[in-house]
Specification:
This is tetrahydrofolate synthase. By secondary structure, the protein is of the alpha/beta class. The chain is built from 15 helices and 17 strands. The chain folds into two domains: about 5-275, 3-Layer(aba) Sandwich (UDP-N-acetylmuramoyl-L-alanine:D-glutamate ligase); about 280-400, Protein-Tyrosine Phosphatase, Chain A, CATH 3.90.190.20. The strands form three sheets. An eight-stranded mixed sheet has the order 4-3-2-5-1-6-7-8, sandwiched between helices. Strands 12-13-17-14-15-16 form a six-stranded mixed sheet. Strands 9-10-11 form a three-stranded antiparallel sheet.
Length: about 425
């Protein structure tokens, strides 16, 4: 057991403290490792993880040594730091954390600030040429924004984390636009109404449905065939990402890859070979099939619902659990057309998780309560089911489905 990792997880309880002063100071004390590689920042309410993973896959296919920083992890901490699609050895991650810890303690850095700095150290030491960095919360004051990106990506803007980011799409978009840099390339998939707000930042911005036109043909459970026309030329490729939102996120990654100078072959190979666990991921388990998805806010739930309807599946049994601070009523409303019944449970490692019994009145389908994710799986009927509502829940269900070791530490972030 790592005492350094125990210490880091304990920092989760300090909470979220937006601002760049501490993380910049920490990076400086570490010798500014972020200057050893180029960086792309990927922000947005939904879709930033799959867009980041797809872009990183494309860069690796193009021959660049590529880092991918994402959060939160599903099951194991080292999932947050991939190099060319592979987790770094746990010993490597823990050794670097041991060097970061004393400097971080002196600055009283937050959990996420430490994790960002750790990622920069790991990528620098691994010889990464370009790192795709998923923004944590918002953008303007997120710790990842201490890096100077060569390209910025804003996937979408929805109403989530409104207590910290604002209660309107415009207010949240303003926070996310903080990752844009004047005169530097940027791409976005946000709604047209928000384009003027982003344009005012002065970045060299290409937007899906404006500079870039997307056509997507569904391939059922195999994903999508995508055609993208932009000032960078015409691209055609396939992606295994499910749902119309999956096709759109893959197209946004391809647009970013174009702006980074990748050729069509690398873009097509990277799009075809991307893996993004726990998001529209279909797994077999004891004669059943479970579709895992990270939908935890109304926009994410709407995308999941649309994807299931497009796949022409009947209403399905669900396993559902949520953090207590989410708009669960809004999520349930979006899932209603595709939900036949629900098993309510909670992530065992997340103190933020809502009591399953408290969620039951929100559902208008048959409800069962399960005391744990394992118990919930045991209640599933034969055939296909869906599990969603909390990434922490998905992170506990996934190793059960795969027969792998599960995490053991408390999860706040």
């Amino acid at each position: 057991m790592s005492t350094d990792l125990d210490w880091l997880y304990a920092r989760q309880r300090v909470g979220i403290h937006p601002g760049l002063t501490r993380v910049r100071a920490l990076l400086q004390r570490l010798g500014d490792p972020q200057q050893a590689f180029r960086a792309v920042l990927v922000g947005g309410t939904n879709g930033k993880g799959s867009t980041s993973a797809t872009l990183a896959s494309m860069l690796t296919a193009g021959g660049q040594r590529t880092g991918l920083f994402t959060s939160p992890h599903l099951t194991h901490f080292q999932e947050r730091f991939l190099v060319d699609g592979q987790e770094l050895p746990e010993a490597t991650v823990l050794a670097a954390l041991g060097r970061v810890r004393p400097l971080a303690e002196g600055l009283e850095a937050s959990f996420f600030e430490i994790v960002v700095a750790l990622g920069c150290v790991l990528f620098a030491e691994a010889g990464v040429e370009l790192a795709v960095m998923e923004v944590g919360l918002g953008g303007r004051l997120d710790a990842t924004n201490a890096l100077e990106p060569v390209l910025s990506v804003i996937t979408s803007v929805g109403l989530d984390h409104t207590d910290l980011l604002g209660h309107t799409h415009e207010a949240i978009a303003t926070e996310k636009a903080g990752i844009l840099r004047t005169g530097r390339p940027a791409v976005t998939g946000v709604a047209a109404a928000l384009w003027p707000l982003l344009d005012r930042r002065g970045a060299d911005l290409w937007a899906l449905d404006r500079e870039a036109q997307l056509e997507a043909r569904p391939l059922g459970w195999s994903g999508w065939e995508v055609r993208l026309r932009s000032p960078g030329g015409l691209l055609s490729f396939q992606t295994p990402l499910l749902g119309e939102h999956g096709a759109r996120n893959a197209a946004l990654a391809a647009l970013a890859a174009q702006r980074l100078g990748l050729d069509e072959a690398a873009i097509a190979t990277g799009a075809r070979t991307v893996r993004w666990p726990g998001r529209m991921e279909r797994l077999s388990w004891q004669g059943r099939e479970v579709l895992l998805d990270g939908a935890h806010n109304p926009d994410g739930a709407a995308a999941l619902s649309a994807a299931l309807q497009a796949l022409a599946v009947p209403p399905l049994p669900f396993v559902f659990g949520s953090a207590a601070d989410k708009d669960v009523a809004g999520v349930v409303e979006q899932l209603r057309p595709v939900m036949a019944s629900v098993i309510l449970t909670r992530a065992q490692l997340s103190p933020r998780a809502a009591d399953p019994a408290s969620l039951a009145p929100l559902f208008q389908v048959p409800v069962q309560l399960a005391g744990s994710p394992q118990e919930a799986l045991g209640l599933l009927p034969p055939g296909l089911s869906v599990a969603c509502g909390s990434l922490y829940l998905i992170g506990e269900l996934r190793p059960l489905l795969l027969g792998e070791a599960a995490g053991t530490r408390e999860r706040w972030q």
